[in-house]
Amino acid sequence: MGDYNSKKIVVVGAGNSGCSLARFFCQRGAKVVLSDSRSEEYLDGLKELKNIPISFDLGGHTESLFQGTDLIVVSPGVPVNLPVLEKARGLGIPIAGEIEIAWQELQAPLVGITGTNGKSTVTTLMGEIFKCWGKQTFVGGNLGKPLITAVDDHWDWLVVELSSFQLETIHSFHPKYGVMLNITEDHLDRYPNMDAYINAKARLFENMTSDDIAVLNADDPLVAKLRGQVKARPVMFSGAYALRDGMSFNGGEIHWHWRGETLSFPVEELQISGRHNIENVMAALIPPLLEGCPADLAWETVKLFQGLPHRMEVIGARNGCRWIDDSKGTNIGSVVKSLSGLKAPVTLIAGGKDKQGDLEPLREAVATKVNHLILIGEAAERMAKAFEDITEIHKAINMVAAVHLADKITAPGSTVLLSPGCSSFDMFKSYEDRGKAFTEAFKALDVARGC
Questions:
Q1: I want to staple 232 with a disulfide (CB 3.0 to 4.6 A). Which of 39, 214, 314, 374 is the partner?
Q2: Which residues contact 400 (CB under 8 A, 6 or more apart)?
């Protein structure tokens, strides 16, 4: 545990994690400065800190504050190469992230879950399994509650979603289980190249030993490659072929082979659909089963799971068309997976803040599934040029216009899918905000048409 009494600490980034960190350090007697490049009107969480003795450095980062402090703690969304951080690093001032600070305070065993897609689903489902087993389980991290909010309570297990941004700033962080789901192109607006992104993800295993377990996707070549590189014992899962030891899918059942025991789980009992969700279920089952959770209890929990909001969530039907909110599909790989589970024809609403990822992997899915591609946001022009030769392109100025256009041009028997392949921050506060706007616009269609 850290001794922060009377220490000068600068917390960078006044989002959810930053505000939680500021509160944590204040409670431990530190002299806290909360610094953010944004001004107060853009920071919703500050009102919750009004009665706490915290200093604020808003609208920019004051260099002297960073150079005259004992510790700098960086929120996940803050680039670690900010000039003020580089200068502080050169002066030998320690810099850490929220995950590292929280880890040093926690005693419970931790499952760290990362990957480009599926993290939130696996984290939520695994947390539900542990809870239904009767374990006091914290579920959060990049999903929902910051890990730092867990430090003052007793937990049997910590199930934590981890982004590459969070893993950039670890030092001693050491999960008992590290789960790597998949790696596809993402966040290339932040990383100089794909290797840098992969290396950030792989830091999950950096401090793990042979006493720990790495849960790895055998079907993803970039993930499978880690098997020979990590010190933790690998346990694999595969949706493509049978494994002698591990979790695999044969087209009708999930099979768990481990130390001479075989268990079978029929996927027809699942409420969530799609090949990607079968992979998510396999990953979510492995740590609880290895820890001794009864298989029938674990599977009963899985069967009841209905998925997450904004992740292939059916929001309704209209004029013979199904409407699906996949606002959490914030990268190209996610859109590919989402389209793979749908039958043609699809009207796809995509676009947003451009992450500069390669659009080529999406071309086959668009060509075979998408009749109409409606584009919004900053990425609209680049995406239009990438797909104009294989489908009909439309542009809309905002989500309401996109929904109205989709309603007009989509034929009965089709699916309207919001799966942007981009982050939301050019037009919305979050992917949740974007999904809510999509749903509200859909529900308003009858009102707008006077029906």
A1: 214
A2: 437, 441, 444
Q: Torsion over CA of 42, 44, 49 and 51, rounded to 10 degrees?
A: 90
Contacts of 233 (CB under 8 A, 6+ apart): 210, 212, 213, 214
Among 31, 119, 328, 394, the active-site one is 119
Our answer to whether residue 142 is catalytic in this structure is yes
Quick check: 305 and 272 in contact, CB under 8 A? yes
Give the chain's domains with CATH numbers: 8-93 (3.40.50.720), 103-304 (3.40.1190.10), 313-448 (3.90.190.20)
Q: What global pTM score does this model have?
A: 0.92
Per DSSP, 321 falls in state E
Q: Which residues contact 140 (CB under 8 A, 6 or more apart)?
A: 146, 147, 149, 150, 160, 161
Query: What are the structure tokens assigned to 191, written together?
Result: 């990383």
Catalytic site residue 119?
A: yes
Q: Nearest CA to 162 among 177, 73, 154, 11?
A: 177
| Cα–Cα distance, 404 to 1 (Å, whole number) | 55
Alpha helices in 55-183 (DSSP H): 63-67, 83-90, 98-103, 119-132, 164-167
C-alpha 77/C-alpha 152 separation (Å) is 24
List pLDDT tens digits, range 340-379. 989 999 999 999 999 888 999 999 999 999 999 999 999 9
